[in-house]
């Protein structure tokens, strides 16, 4: 398949993607930002909204809305496909397209793991802020339940279990049990300590503010320790990134020397064998190096 055919396929796919309304968000955005409030009031297909709907300016604005919304929906793993198309055009082979399609689920898995880790880190910081805010509310004279509710609203430290904890606090339920259930969410493990402090304060009459202060100090120290360890391992992650970029650097050096490495790798038996073996070794090396670093981080 020639380079022109690859380019035509890519342009046709992009045009179809931009032309078709893929969900109601495009239509809502068109009504609000293109046809204006009058179009929203009279309907896109009726009344004054239909006047001039096919003018060049309106079509341009609608196309721009579709591009913006489509870019927001586009996930990072799908960037593998444009890169694969470029390599397929340069190498005049379909193998990069197959490799790009195979790489999408692996990249998606890695990106989702990173998103979950960042979300858990944010929730852990919210728990620390929740303990400090609740202790401050208690010292200002608030009762435990209003103090917990006010701190939860201010910090969002209860994660996805906020509705359960708020319902238990407002309607006389078991707050400590609700906190323990909320602590099962990644990043909210500190809520188990808050549940223990709540139980001790309710059953034994101990001061809840003092327990929250100690819990906040412990959680903050643990978080600072993780951040320090992450900073120390930043160099190791940089090494892993350099390891991943070495094949690209090798291809660039080959082009700089006047060779055609893609044609050798994609159109000769020896090159295909080297590509398969090198890809497997590269993947194994990245996995092993990442495993070592993650083991050092305790994750």
TrEMBL record:
Pfam families: T2SSF
Keywords per UniProt: Cell membrane, Membrane, Transmembrane, Transmembrane helix
InterPro entries associated with the record: T2SS_GspF_dom
Topology relative to the membrane: Multi-pass membrane protein
Keyword Membrane: yes
The protein's name in its UniProt record: Type II secretion system protein GspF domain-containing protein
GO terms for cellular component: plasma membrane
Residue span, Type II secretion system protein GspF domain: 136-253
Residue stretches spanning the membrane: 83-107, 233-258, 264-289
Organism for this UniProt entry: Streptomyces liangshanensis
Subcellular location: Cell membrane
């Amino acid at each position: 398949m020639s380079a022109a055919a690859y380019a035509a396929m890519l342009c046709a796919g992009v045009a179809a993607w931009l032309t078709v309304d893929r969900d109601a968000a495009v239509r809502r955005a068109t009504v609000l930002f293109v046809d204006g409030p009058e179009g929203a009031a009279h309907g896109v297909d009726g009344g004054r909204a239909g006047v001039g709907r096919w003018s060049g300016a309106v079509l341009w604005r609608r196309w721009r809305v579709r591009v913006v919304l489509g870019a927001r929906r586009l996930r990072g793993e799908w960037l593998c496909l444009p890169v694969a198309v470029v390599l397929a055009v340069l190498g005049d082979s379909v193998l990069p397209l197959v490799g790009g399609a195979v790489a999408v689920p692996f990249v998606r898995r890695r990106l989702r793991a990173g998103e979950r880790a960042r979300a858990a880190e944010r929730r852990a910081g919210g728990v620390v802020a929740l303990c400090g805010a609740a202790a401050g509310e208690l010292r200002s004279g608030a009762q435990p339940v209003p103090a917990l509710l006010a701190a939860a609203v201010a910090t969002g430290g209860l994660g996805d279990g906020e509705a359960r904890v708020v319902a238990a606090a407002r309607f006389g339920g078991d707050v400590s049990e609700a906190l323990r259930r909320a602590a099962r969410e990644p990043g909210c493990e500190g809520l188990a300590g808050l549940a223990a402090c709540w139980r001790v304060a309710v059953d034994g009459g101990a001061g809840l503010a003092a327990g929250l202060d100690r819990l906040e100090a412990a959680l903050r120290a643990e978080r600072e320790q993780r951040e320090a360890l992450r900073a120390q391992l930043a160099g190791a992650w940089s090494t892993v990134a350099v390891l991943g970029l070495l094949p690209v650097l090798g291809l660039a050096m080959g082009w700089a020397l006047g060779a055609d490495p893609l044609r050798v790798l994609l159109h000769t038996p020896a090159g295909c064998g080297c590509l398969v073996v090198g890809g497997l070794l590269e993947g194994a090396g990245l996995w092993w190096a990442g495993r070592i670093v993650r083991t050092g981080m305790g994750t």
